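Need the bound structure for magnesium ion, inputs here:
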Amino acid sequence: MKINLANIKKAQKLLNKGECVAIPTETVYGLAANAYSDKACKKIYKLKKRPQNNPLIVHYLNNQILKRDCSFNNDFLKLYKIFCPGPITFILNLKKNSKISKIVTNRKKTLAVRFPKHPVTRNLLKNLNFPLAAPSANLSSKVSAVNSADVKDDFGKKVKYILEGGKSSIGLESTIIDIRNKPKILRLGGLEISTIEKALNKKIITRNNPQKISSPGQLKLHYSPGIPIRLNVKKINKGEAYLSIKNMRKKKPNFYFLSKNGNLNEAAKNLYSILRKIKKNKHKSIAVGKIPNKGLGRTINDRLKRASKF
Ligand code: TXA
Ligand code: MG
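Answer from helper R.:
Posting the output first, comments after.
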């Protein structure tokens, strides 16, 4: 994708003034603000209608800059070298003299940090004197945004500027790992756990439990298109949209598919757009066929399961 420097300048100016700007990342779009400013970060919560006790992820250009705010260990460095920039978020200890706003952390002593790969956002970060706090750019509890039109649908003119970056190449949020002691996965995401295990050469605990207050996605309902979802469906009910992993080659107006031939990466990339499309087409509910629980299929199933608690 060609980088438009004028657009980046515009985003930079607004962020410097303490405004919120939507930014593209390879996972999903983020709603960004200066992570060192209370006032700027408060705007994120207000726009998203996000509960204040749900802390934000902070986006850095590299680990040299991160050093000012967080301490980290060898496991972090191992994963950083292999996967960053990329779809992985680390829970780290905040340094006492860190400048991160208390609004970002909800006064926790830890910080969620990520190094996005999208070239537009990397260029933006290079031009800023602060890291960017950015949750996914969607209304709280709803489906994440994977292109600028999705962000516009959710926020209209309330977001001052959307930095264009095309469609997110992964389409699912980052994998969150608490790396401080024994590595623990807190949220499945765009980077597969088995890949992380291989890199660390150890087994990783998975605590992907949405009921637990200390882990991500505390809200009971998450990633929801706003209509009921049934999973592992064999028989479709009248009036339902049917969503399958691959093209069933049935020309029915209520049939949707995530990928042509069942490719899970392609399915991940399409998931949120198709959920939004089904809602827009006014179907009242969604029946989802079986999706293989391997690779990114695990993350897709996790998101659909949380979205089904309607
Ligand atoms: O791919 C992504 O991670 C995207 C892009 C924009 O970077 N961001 C994203 O942010 O998904 P958000 O806010 O929608 O989800 C972040 C999750 C939340 O569920 C939050 O509870 C959790 O991370 N979180 C943030 N700080 C934390 C911390 N210190 N400890 C544990 N969980 C934390
Ligand atoms: Mg989110």
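Comments: Residues 25, 27-28, 30, 54-57, 89, 91, 108, 110-112, 114, 134-136, 173-174, 176, 186, 216-217 surround threonylcarbamoyladenylate (ligand 1) (CB under 6 Å). Residues 264-280 form the longest helix (17 residues).
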